[in-house]
Amino acid sequence: MYSVLFKxxxxxxxxxxxxxxxSFLVLMVLIAIRLLYSYGISASFSNSTPHLTAEWIAGETSxxxxxxxxxSVFSNSQEIESYSLFTRGTRPLLIExxxxxxxxxxxxxxxxxxxxIDLSRHPFAIPIDQATSLINEHENAMxxxxxxxxxxxGRNEVVVNRAMIxxxxxxxxxxxxxxxxxxxxGTSLSEIRIVAVLNDMIDTPRMFLSLxxxxxxxxxxxxxxxxxxxxNFDRLQIxxxxxxxxxxxxxxxxxxxxxxxxxxxxxxxxxxxFWIIAVAILTLSAITxxxxxxxxxxxxRNSIAILLLLGVSKRTFYWMLASITEISLLGGAGLAALxxxxxxxxxxxxxxxxxxxxxxxxxxxxxxxxxxxxxGGMFILYSVLSLIFLKVIxxxxxxxx
Amino acid sequence: MSAIVSASEKxxxxxxxxxxxxxxxxxxxxxxxxxxxxxxxxxxxxxxANFETSAADFVVFAKAQKMDFxxxxxxxxxxxxxxxxxxxxxxxxxxxxxCQAKGGRLPTEAEWEYAATMDVSGQQQKFRWPxxxxxxxxxxxxxxxxxxxxxxxxxxxxxxxxxESEEEFSEENLDDxxxxxxxxxxEGDLDDDALEKLLAEVDEETGTKEEPSxxxxxxxxxVQKTFRGLNGLHGxxxxxxxxxxxxxxxxxxxxxxxxxxxxxxxxKIFRGGSYQxxxxxxxxxxxxxxxxxxxxxxxxxxxxxxxxxxCAWNAPP
Lengths: 401, 317
Hints:
Helix content of chain B: 25-40%
Order of helices and strands of chain B: EEEEHHHHEEHHHEEEEEE
Strand order of the largest sheet of chain B: 10-9-7-11
Strand content of chain A: 15-25%
Number of helices of chain A: 12
CATH class of the largest domain in chain B: Alpha Beta
Largest sheet of chain B: 4 strands, mixed
Structural class of chain A: alpha+beta
Distance between the termini of chain B: 16 Å
Helix content of chain A: 40-55%
Shape of chain A: elongated
Number of helices of chain B: 7
Shape of chain B: globular
CATH architecture of the largest domain in chain B: Alpha-Beta Complex
CATH topology of the largest domain in chain B: paralog of FGE (formylglycine-generating enzyme)
Strand content of chain B: 5-15%
CATH superfamily of the largest domain in chain B: paralog of FGE (formylglycine-generating enzyme)
Largest sheet of chain A: 6 strands, mixed, barrel
Order of helices and strands of chain A: HHEHEEEHEHEEEHEHEHHHHH
Number of domains of chain B: 2
Number of domains of chain A: 2
Oligomer: heterodimer
């Protein structure tokens, strides 16, 4: 009986394997991209930015005891890699070129977001590994550590972002000196040396510099808060919660994830698209698979009718076809896994190249456990959908006998 | 010391055999936190080039391999005019290929630091700099640096070398024509240009310059004239940064045996500082980037004009 039934549907498994294999492959690629973006790339972006930021809710303070108390909580934590006090402010500035090699004098007038950071401890919160060094007096670009040392030791060194450097004309490929002045009074505030350009995607002109220099330019001594980096990025939320408990209620602790609104929004958009595409693929693929069975059903309807007359039950039909479908899906999953593994390096490379063109992120590892869970989930969903469709077909077609 | 591994006769490179041992990798006082935690590392015997790879040697290799990279034209010019300048502007892959073609590899990070800071022949002691516990004097500005500390054996070795170099330029060792030129110069018969030319000729013949090699230099110099430190290795501090084999990652706390770094990564490490970092100092302090425990990093495909390399080899079994 079973062999007769199998002969009736002998072409169905091949069709199912190919169809489900392609569907699974597309889903695996989508899942991999999603996981790489959500885990690896997020973690990579965090390499040079503060993981945690603690700020006084009431605003900046010059109270040294408050600053010390805040620092001591972080210095006592075994989970913290480094921390630095910071101040931030936006001020309209007039910046005038002083450097040799600049043709003429260039004046820049715009509000600039100024972030001053305690640079005595490396790594600090200026993302210099995402910055391009300008050419130094040796006609050479500086390496990352040279840039860090320049910032730590120099008094006037600053890093600006692309939005700010683009406002200077001509493009200053070399390190140059500038005079920062108050835009209204014209009072000279300080001399600065722009040593690197941050490759961020933010449209506001930004300037990163040492805390004392920022305090001079912003003309305030107050500290806004503290940036910290955790030793283990995976424990970020746990550390954030534990640190928050140790601090008084007047301090708000936000994590790197909270601070990356732009990326978080982009990720949410991607996530929505992922779900829509994934569900669409699953449904279409399952429907197409069932249409294949339905087609076989229709072409063999005479034989099926005879079998039913001979006493084969609907249940037997259903389990027979369900078994064929499930085995075919397993075959499809295996095929997809093979294709995925053989093409993974190329996929990863292409993905990374496109991302690294914007920002120097590390090559993230695909987190295998979540990858297996996700794919397992997709397989189960696909199977359930297929079985439901099969049931519907059988219930409608069997009556044709 | 063993085989000469240079293609250029003017700047021969020798392999120095270093006996393995245990040492503490990292520093508790480095400017950058990633030199910590200091942890024990067991190093196996290995050989390392006594000089940084020269431009002349690398250009021969690059031409044979039909390599093309932005800095090649500069290296080609230098290989003609100043062949013993260090190869630089070479990315990690180029450096590794060169060393593999010489039957070797880039040194591991731990090997590099071991070679730069451990007195292997003597007391198996780790020093702060390849010069001992004092930074080498900076050329032309002795007052900054203070004295160097060497073991007695090293001092003897240095004195012997000094004697040898004096002998080399003694009258007996010069041929008649050279002697005549020198005597003429003594008598004032040579003008400044002619004297400079004569000195340049002597330099070219010997592959050296008149500057002493126990100094750090503010400018790029021939690989032989770089500072000579522990274990007879030149240029482990200054001149050009040097690629090592390892991918960058944080140091573990646990001790390790012959570590080679992680299998994958984003940045490759380079060590040793360059001539451009000599003047970057805290007030009345030493050059902060000229620290043999300091870990610099860049993507392996990146190249800098002050980043070169030297090769290492496994010790024969």
